[in-house]
Design goal:
3 domains, Immunoglobulin-like, binds 2-acetamido-2-deoxy-beta-D-glucopyranose, repeat, 391 residues, mainly beta
């Protein structure tokens, strides 16, 4: 039996969900005219089943309001050349907009592209996958960020499990903290059939690394799916503040002339309290600063996820220009209680998008380095991020 949770506040800051899209509109002839680099790195453990999803529809929907998955063909390529085909026996197989690995192995580390097309439209998205050895895993790289408020009860979700729990009635997670199995007791409460755990009366010491594990059977083989969560604790007084989930002080790379979309995703808890989200460029409103409409704000989108309500307002660059690299962009989220400001900068991408094709492994290394740098930067910036100011 669970207690009624009155003030359950969950901020999932999926560090792997670093979302930024760079699109180059005029690619190579044989390529799709529309190419997107999705900077979301997937970091997974060797030997575990993995699902990666093509984010094209999300992008098409957000940007062009044209979406109807069934009217598209989706092809997956590995390493920008090798096509992956569905096949019962194959360890890696595409299934609609998902690519399944049973299981993922170290050698699968690489770049994967999904090419989404019908007779009139073609978009190619590239994602990176990094498979790490269990015993050599760098925990901050793989962990999902979650945030809990002191003296509250916290509902910790085991993230990204839906592909493994769908159609199942036997879901039974095991939870660990710092490698120790957590007893389902007074402090930690979880039950079968759910993918979350309640932590009662959050104190500073509850911060740290948690692991949840799920058994998964595929073709009569047993697998374990594990997720590592980094829980951070913040003072109770900040509970009703809106919290910007991303961008998170991450530098965003873009090539001149490319299309770029920067989402600002804001956690607003139970909703209400008149939340608003907007962007500024050099401290001016976007429509004033960009009178020509080259850069616009996307529509205000509100949606509910398992841990609460979110608002998403994107900053959309039709084509990135030199001057954008010197301009400070800020996402501002505000409600009746307070506000949070998150400055972000766009920096010049080291090279145009299409350059990954002949030199994929080199790009992969750069991507990994970039992600590591982003992590370091983020960690350093975390303090600032939560020193919210009263509006
Ligand atoms: C990518 O392709 C290159 C050249 O074909 C090959 O040397 C490399 O091992 C491949 N990498 C992966 C991860 O498949
Ligand atoms: C291709 O997809 C777009 C977007 O859904 C749609 O508008 C268009 O009609 C489709 N073309 C064909 C030939 O199905
Ligand atoms: C879940 O069930 C639906 C309908 O029965 C099926 O199409 C789908 O493949 C199943 N999903 C998984 C992951 O087994
Ligand atoms: C924004 O401000 C910076 C620093 O004050 C300045 O260098 C830059 O030119 C400004 N951007 C534009 C587009 O005016």
């Amino acid at each position: 039996m669970y207690l009624k949770m009155r003030h359950v506040v969950v901020i999932s800051m999926c560090v792997l969900q670093t979302m930024a899209f760079v699109v180059q509109q005029s690619g190579k002839e044989e390529k799709c005219p529309e190419q997107i680099t999705h900077f979301m790195g997937h970091y997974v453990l060797n030997g575990e089943p993995v699902v990666i999803k093509c984010p094209a529809f999300q992008y098409l929907q957000m940007d062009l309001s044209r979406v109807s998955p069934s009217s598209f063909n989706i092809a997956w390529t590995k390493n920008a050349s090798e096509y992956l085909y569905a096949g019962r026996q194959s360890r890696i197989h595409p299934k609609k907009e998902s690519l399944w690995f049973f299981p993922a192995l170290i050698e699968d580390t690489g770049l994967y592209s999904c090419i989404v097309r019908n007779s009139s439209l073609c978009t190619e998205l590239t994602l990176s996958l990094t498979v790490m050895k269990q015993e050599e895993v760098h925990v901050p790289d793989i962990a999902y960020e979650q945030l809990a408020f002191e003296h509250s009860q916290f509902q910790m979700f085991c993230p990204d499990l839906s592909d493994f729990t769908i159609n199942r009635t036997d879901v039974q997670l095991q939870w660990y903290k710092d490698g120790k199995l957590l007893e389902n007791d007074i402090k930690y409460m979880y039950s079968s059939g759910t993918t979350y755990m309640h932590i009662i009366d959050i104190v500073k010491n509850d911060g740290g690394y948690y692991t949840c594990k799920l058994q998964f059977t595929h073709e009569n083989k047993e697998y374990v799916v594990s997720r590592i969560i980094h829980l951070r604790i913040v003072g109770k007084d900040k509970r009703h503040y809106p919290v910007i989930q991303y961008p998170n002080h991450k530098p965003i790379a873009a090539a001149i002339g490319s299309k770029l979309l920067i989402p600002c995703k804001v956690y607003i808890g139970n909703g209400g309290n008149n939340p608003i989200v907007w962007w500024l460029a050099n401290d001016s409103y976007i429509d004033e600063f960009f009178g020509d409409g080259r850069v616009i704000e996307g529509t205000f989108q509100e949606r509910t996820e398992s841990d609460g309500h979110y608002i998403d307002v994107s900053l959309i660059f039709e084509n990135v220009k030199e001057e954008d690299f010197n301009t400070e962009f800020k996402c501002i989220a505000s409600n009746d209680y307070g506000s949070q400001v998150l400055p972000t900068h766009i920096r010049r991408a080291a090279s145009p998008f299409t350059w990954y094709i002949p030199v994929a492994p080199a790009v992969l290394v750069l991507l990994i380095i970039a992600v590591i740098v982003i992590y370091k930067y983020r960690k350093a910036a975390n303090k600032k991020e939560y020193s919210l100011t009263k509006s």
